[in-house]
Design goal:
Blueprint lengths: L1 H36 L1 E6 L2 E8 L4 H11 L4 H14 L5 E10 L10 H4 E4 L5 E2 L3 E3 L8 E10 L7 E8 L2 E6 L1 H13 L6 E4 L10 E4 L20 E3 L13 E3 L29 H14 L2 H6 L3 H6 L2 H9 L3 H6 L2 E6 L2 E10 L2 E14 L2 E5 L1
Parallel strand pairs: 6-12
Antiparallel strand pairs: 1-2, 2-3, 3-7, 4-5, 4-8, 6-7, 8-9, 10-11, 13-14, 14-15, 15-16, 16-17
Helix pairs in contact: 1-2, 2-3
């Protein structure tokens, strides 16, 4: 009898593994299909460029796929979902990844990037970017990738126009396949606001027809009455790239920065004991980063200077350090470069098959003989 039960359990586990694997594969295929649909490639003079739009519907299949692949717990999956959404500014902007490969003798020049790239919406209006990575604004040789964010677009019927790939000509990137995918999804789901649904009433099989009602446009509207577009902001990405291109020593997540005797200082959340010498900035940095990796925001907050704690609440501090993908990058390793008494911590972040680096500078002050973090 016990043999039959053992065989039954093994078969159940095998079936569960197969089903999970199939689910993971389906999610990954969905993510690939979405990426394929929203990728546009154009050739230039001695260069090739491609732009990928990251729509909101990409988040769930990609997160589920990664969570299953890495065997994440529910709270880790939720953290990944939030980090991914924050990085792509889902719900607040329209995100694109621009990749340019220049293989000619002269570098590709897209500067000034804020003026040479525009989103053209369904009405033909040119929309400037609100944020882009600064490396796209520098001469490009080899492969350079960076994110460009435009104001949030409710209508996906847009294209991207860019100068600099071909002399004296503008290059247009269209996403017709993505629009077709959007139309298919729109017909299969509840129609959005502004549409009507017509249903057959005879005995033949019912078929829904979605008719989009165009928004009335007053041609007499003066373009000057449109709200002014904000000046595009270039993200400082001077430290982006690969670890080999950055300064400082690399620390894998399993290798401590500094390992003092256990009695040198107390646990993260405890107050420093006066019987021991106050920890220096390197010791505090190790405690701070380990607490960050563990998600222990209370311990991190306890390491802030008195002045910093007076300017930011514990709750707001926790929200800020837990948002974005920096914590996830710390888990995979980091590089530290000391500039005076400030530490520049660089992490590698993998965002949908794109690897970038992000650097945060952590400053220190001395209080009662101990180093504290200045926020």
């Amino acid at each position: 009898m016990w043999k039959k039960r053992a065989i039954s359990i093994c078969l159940s586990l095998f079936c569960l593994t197969v089903l999970c694997g199939a689910s993971n594969a389906a999610d990954r295929e969905t993510a690939f299909d979405i990426l394929d649909a929203w990728t546009s490639v154009r050739w230039g003079e001695d260069n090739i460029a491609w732009i990928v739009h990251y729509p909101e519907e990409l988040v769930e299949p990609w997160v589920r796929s990664e969570a299953e692949k890495q065997r994440m717990r529910p709270e880790q999956t939720e953290e990944l979902r939030k980090s991914f959404s924050d990085e792509l500014r889902i719900g607040s902007a329209t995100a694109f990844l621009l990749s340019v490969y220049g293989y000619g003798a002269s570098p590709v020049n897209l500067s000034p990037m804020g003026e040479n790239i525009a989103l053209i919406d369904s009405s033909g209006r040119r929309v400037r970017p609100i944020v882009f990575e600064r490396r796209l604004d520098s001469p490009i040789s080899g492969l350079v990738q960076g994110f460009v964010f435009f104001p949030l677009q409710a209508d996906k019927n847009f294209s991207i126009a860019m100068k600099g790939l071909v002399p004296n000509r503008e290059t247009n990137f269209n996403f017709t396949q993505g629009l077709r995918m959007e139309s298919t999804v729109a017909i299969a789901t509840t129609p959005p606001h502004g549409t009507t649904v017509q249903t057959r009433t005879d005995d033949s099989p019912q078929r829904e027809v979605v008719v989009r009602i165009p928004t009335r446009r007053d041609d007499s509207t003066d373009a000057a009455l449109l709200p002014p577009q904000p000046e595009p902001v270039a993200i400082d990405t001077s430290d982006f790239g690969y670890f080999g291109e950055a300064e400082g020593e690399i620390f894998p997540p399993t290798e401590p920065i500094f390992s003092p005797p256990p009695s040198s200082f107390p646990n993260f959340a405890d107050e420093f004991v006066n019987d021991f010498p106050g920890p220096d900035s390197r010791q505090v940095l190790e405690i701070y980063l380990r607490a960050w990796i563990d998600g222990d925001t209370d311990s991190m907050y306890s390491l802030l200077s008195t002045e910093s704690q007076g300017t930011i609440s514990r709750e707001l501090f926790a929200r800020e350090v837990m948002s974005g993908g920096f914590r996830g990058g710390l888990r995979t390793g980091y590089r530290i470069n000391w500039v005076g008494d400030a530490a520049r911590v660089t992490v590698a972040k993998k965002l949908l098959f794109v690897r970038t680096l992000e650097t945060k500078q952590i400053n220190f002050v001395t209080e009662d003989g101990s180093a504290r973090v200045s926020w």
